[in-house]
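Researcher: I'd like a structural prediction for the single chain below. Treat it as a standalone chain; there are no partners to consider.
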Amino acid sequence: MLTMQHQMNTRVHEDWVNQNYEWYRAVWIECGELMDHIGYKWWKKQTADVEQVRLEIVDIWHFGMSALFDPSIDIDGLAQQIEVELYHAEPETGDVRLATEALAAHTLQSRAFSVALFAQLMLAAELSFDELYQHYVGKNVLNFFRQDNGYKDGSYIKEWRGREDNEHLSELIAQLDDSAEDFPDQVYQGLQQRYPG
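Model: Treating it as a single chain, here is the predicted structure.
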């Protein structure tokens, strides 16, 4: 996933690691979007959209991984650091809202990304590492698809047939075999077949 993220970020800016982008800002904004999908409004009826919550967690992971990159650490070394934090995280709560708020608060206060708090959010949302990987690959492919279809210049159409591209992606991922060697290609082709542009 780190290699895929590096490739995507390089597509946006060749020397992205040294740009000092505010990845933390994207993380807490995604936390806010997650809250919209889980529902927090006690004053109106809301139904949690678990699949969209999971996609928001994947979006957080994209930005979180990006924040962890450092020119002095190679991808293998970074992967080892992340693995230790992911697999040794203890859930403090089973509440997705509280876990999201904890990650957002830490991110705002430190302007950094906490793998341990992210792992707690995954556990609260009952999102396994395998599911994170499956959704990450799908979302990474969607991000490349967006770039290929005008995301940077503003010509990309995000809603197709009354649904966001993320919803189409979720449907595609559920239909495909994520263990297939050409899984990313299948996702891209599936998006291409559905895209109206």
